[in-house]
Amino acid sequence: MKAAVLHSENHFIYQDMESFECQNDEVKIKVMAAGICGSDTHKMVSKWKYPLPAIMGHEFSGYVVEKGSDVANVEIGDRVVAIPFLPCHTCEYCKSGVYSLCEDHGMIGSKSYGGFAEYVNLKATNVLPIGNMDFEEAAMIEPLAVALHGVLHIQPRLGDVAAVFGVGTIGMLAIQWLKIAGVKEIIAIDISDEKLAEAKAMGCERTINPLQDNLIEKVHEYTNGLGVDVALECAGSKITQEQCLLITRKKGEIGYLGIAYSNVVLSEQAFENIFRKELTLKGFWNCYSAPFPGEEWTKSIDFILKGRIKLKELISHRFPLEETQKAFDLMINRKETYGKVMIIPNKE
């Protein structure tokens, strides 16, 4: 099979790789769409921590072309989404059903070969049927589940006012889940006017660009001086990770979904707000619960199939498998504004 093989940081070679036969408990997926995650590009400009050569790609879908003798949950020809997380099932967190916190998990696309290839072998327990769902939409189930994991556990109340920092893919998906959860008003916060316009089109009532307006003053203006009930940090920026603490009302809740890529140093006011306002801070990692892979995945599939979630609108670029390097260069060098970038290993 052909694959985009990573040989060092941001150095991909489109080459032949062996396609292995299925084990008894595995299926072989013909990959039809694979998304590039924001964490993928960060790994290209910092340090790749996993074995090389590697085949990246943990957000992907396709259809089953081969299955092992013990597989009973899917049939050849079924359209499926891949679940990239491989829990150990033996640590105390797995035994408690808190799979996201597994202490010895595997990961397709980093610790083992992923979806930037024509075919991928996966355990049958790591695929879910998607019915007649579009493959590109199905390739976005994993980030959609990540956003839902945060919204489910921050537990917004009907009528809340929420702020979302960073309206990239995760932020835009979180906005949609907040709407479904009954949030009355959402304030989108980003330094890109183009992204803010997209957020407004997605249903955000208010937008703020902190490079142009005083963030705290604007939030107070929009909330009668109280601050927001819920703040979700989806940007992974040390600036926004602090700003959440400055705009949330007393007894408010803050959810951190963005990864920290550098030290976060808090101002005196930001830190004091945690206890003076009795804020609740929650962190959200991955998107898995019991029964594996959890309601984050099954609800995501249900809501997509019912047409309640907009995904196609978030896809900005599509590249064939042989142009994977070009796709990463676009994102890393920010050659142009982009949303979700898809790799298309096979054509229908």
Automatic annotation (TrEMBL):
List, for all copies, the residue spans of the domain called Enoyl reductase (ER).
15-343
One Pfam family from the UniProt entry?
Answer: ADH_N
Name the InterPro entries for this protein: ADH-like_C, ADH-like_N, ADH_Zn_CS, ER, GroES-like_sf, NAD(P)-bd_dom_sf, Zn_alcohol_dh
Cofactor(s) listed: Zn(2+)
Keyword Zinc among record annotations: yes
Q: Which UniProt keywords apply?
A: Metal-binding, Oxidoreductase, Zinc
Identify the PROSITE patterns for this entry: ADH_ZINC
- Domain of life, source organism: Bacteria
**Does Ribonucleoprotein count among this protein's keywords?**
no
GO-annotated molecular function: oxidoreductase activity; zinc ion binding
Q: Which family does it belong to?
A: Belongs to the zinc-containing alcohol dehydrogenase family.
Q: What is this protein called?
A: L-iditol 2-dehydrogenase
Supply the source organism for this entry: Halalkalibacter nanhaiisediminis
Identify the taxonomic lineage of the organism of origin. Bacteria, Bacillati, Bacillota, Bacilli, Bacillales
